[in-house]
Amino acid sequence: MSCERAFQPELEGCPVVVLSNNDGCVVARSNESKALGVPMGTPYFKVKYLVDKGKLVVRSSNYTLYGDLSARVMSLLAEVAPKLEVYSIDEAFMNMDGVRKEDLTGLCRDLIRKIRRWTGIPVSIGIAESKTLAKVANHFAKKYKGYKGVCMIDTPEKMNKALSLTPIRDVWGIGWRGAPKLEAAGVKNALDFVSRPSEWVRERMGIMGVRTWSELQGIRMVEDEKDEKRKSICTSRSFANMITKFDDLAQRVSDFAGKCAEKLRKDGTAAGTVGVFIHTNRFREDLAQYYPNACVKLDVPANSTPEIVGAALRAMKMVFRQGFEYKRAGVIVTDIVDADSIQQTLFGFDSGARDRDDRISRVMDMVNTSGKNVLHLGTQRSGHYADGIRREFCSGLYTTSWDELIEVK
DNA sequence: TCTGGGGTCCTAGGACCC
DNA sequence: TCTGGGGTCCTAGGACCC
Questions:
Q1: Spans of chain A, pLDDT less than 70
Q2: What's the pLDDT score for residue A386?
Q3: Residue A330, CB, less than 7 Å from strand B?
Q4: Strand C and chain A: which residues 110-149 have CB closer than 7 Å?
Q5: Which of A152, A248, A264, A391 has a CA positioned 20 to 30 A from the CA of residue A327?
Q6: Nucleotides, chain B, CB distance < 7 Å
Q7: Distances in Å between the alpha carbon of A137 and those of A33, A142, A164, A369?
Q8: CA of A185 and C1' of C6: distance in angstroms?
Q9: Which nucleotides of C are covered by protein (CB under 7 A)?
Q10: DSSP code of A21?
Q11: For the sheet containing A233-243, what is the strand order?
């Protein structure tokens, strides 16, 4: 939302929503659109009448733009925080241990001004002893202008006040299934929750519930994300139109597999297992449903495009059935190891074919720099895994280069 | 007509072993 | 004939996050 506004100030003050891939459903809302009563996750066709009446503006999502701006904001945070943990595209935890408490608020206000000036993105900061409590604080910082972007919960009094004003459903880690259960038991807000004994929480919510319970009281339970490699990588998409032919689906699955291989190489890892899932349209109850998945174990972990694509196609052959209309598919690679560690394993193998595959992949990576996907295997449709995605309301590609514009078309 | 994508972790239950 | 029980590992599915 802020990204779209950063480049289109005329959207300021307007009800705007950003749509998911395929212009499927609402994934981000401006305050004005929330006030209009547009719920998160609404399918676009349900709010189209508001658009037609001129009451709501929509934008297709533009992850290249958001990723770019996010990286700029994160680098400014990193200049200030002794330790920075990037949690998602629009959220980060700054570990400020060692900074004097009296300095924190001022320091954060300066940071917010700087980010606004340099990137156009408005940010808010919540400060507390634990991550969950910091998220509560951030909520207040965002909601009430008086905080000037920064809210600190640093005394038991402030903590109790904040918790009593936080509906239990808004607490990080409770979730849409947990909240109704708690509400039914009389727990309406976060203060009610922490007032229950930990055993009570354990019985109903498991150990994750107890972690949240402790976190809300300022006890750190959520570990800092270590710099470890991802344990699985998934590339999947819904299709604008349903697919029935094996060859068409195989091309899309090849694209997804190729993207997974690229991600592996970028991470410096390799995968031991390649999985594929294909789904019919779950909303079309009038049509036959089929949601199979299959996976192929590789003899030796791999990250080359030909190997990952080959394995994905083998997996897909195992489960593909004629007569269904497929709406979505994806490739998941797991059993991920460091790419360096497989060299020794390979010792003694006839690795000629693998060398060739690795060379092919390296050339593909060199040529297919961000957005310019021109090199691909015969089974891949276009080398552009995002093809066939509906993006009717895309704003300009402000931070992408002309070269990429040509490729994106 | 039209309904997102990419992760992590926990838990329950089955397989297997002694 | 009698036919246990506990530990570990793996997997699928559920729940959560943004």
A1: 343-351, 366-376, 378-379, 381-388, 397-409
A2: 56
A3: yes
A4: 135
A5: A264
A6: 1-11
A7: 23, 9, 12, 40
A8: 36
A9: 15-18
A10: G
A11: A233-243, A326-338, A269-280, A293-302
Distance, in Å, from the CA atom of A31 to the CA atom of A43, rounded to the nearest integer, reads: 18
Measured from Cα to the C1' atom, the residue closest to C14 is: A177
Bridge partner residues of A167 (DSSP): A189
| DSSP line for A151-205 | EE--SHHHHHHHHHTSBGGGSTTTHHHHHHHHHHTT--BHHHHHHS-HHHHHHHH
- Name the residue with tokens 């980010």: A115
Rounded to two decimals, the pTM is 0.89
Q: Residue A400's pLDDT is what? A: 54
H helices within A217-297, ranges in order? 246-267
Q: Would you state the pLDDT for residue A406?
A: 31
Predicted pLDDT at A358: 77
CA A315/CA A333 separation, integer angstroms: 12
**What pLDDT is recorded for position A76?**
97
| Measured CA A201 to C1' B15 distance, in angstroms | 32
Token readout for A215 is 């976190």
